[in-house]
Amino acid sequence: MYSLREGKLEDLPRVLELIKELAHYEKAPEQVTNTLDLMKEDGFGPNPVYGLYVCEKDSTGEIIGIAIYYYRYSTWKGKRLYLEDIVVTESERGNGAGKMLFDRVMAKCLESNCTGMMWQVLDWNEPAINFYKKYGATLEAGWLNAHLQDYEIKKLLGA
Which keywords label this protein (predicted)? Predict the structure, then answer.
């Protein structure tokens, strides 16, 4: 029904569509400021900072799901794989594509000699929470996400 493979440069237009679909689902479509040019440079340029798997529907070859990951370093745990996002288009959810993607990312974690993997899930996203609970994942409370945008950093640093 589905096939998995590493993402290619020519997949990026569809990948960005799926990212925007996820942002809409998470009620934050205006938050997507990523572009195809940034994704090309950051994933397929001389110093890639993310990896990508795509899930295709066998009958059509259409990309219906993606998993984007990168590596981070934990002072407590060492090298970790960070799953940035798994996205499966709404019409294909519940048919096993998400499991295929998640399993592949777990395998990549082991192949890369990571000490584990981590990701975030919104506290209201019950379908995703239930999906991760099936794996026995630990869902931590008590951590707050913090961020600064590039324009905010420039202002703070007087740049």
Answer: Acyltransferase, Transferase
At 34, which CATH number?
Answer: 3.40.630.30
Question: CA nearest 125: which of 2, 9, 20, 28?
Answer: 28
- What domain range is 47 assigned to? 2-157
Domain count, the chain: 1
List CB contacts of 3: < 8 A, sequence separation 6 or more. Answer: 55, 56, 58
DSSP secondary-structure letter at 102? H
Residue 143's pLDDT is what? 81
Pairing state of beta strands 117-118 and 78-88? Answer: parallel
- From 50, 70, 71, 132, the catalytic residue: 132
**Whole-angstrom distance between the N-terminal and C-terminal Cα of the chain?**
52
Q: How far apart are CA 83 and CA 119, in angstroms?
A: 5
pTM metric for this prediction: 0.93
CA dihedral 154, 85, 29, 33 (to 10 degrees): 30
What pLDDT digit, counting tens, does each position of 66-82 carry?
Answer: 999 999 999 999 999 99
Residue-wise DSSP of 15-55: HHHHHHHHHHHTT-GGG----HHHHHHHHHSSS---EEEEE
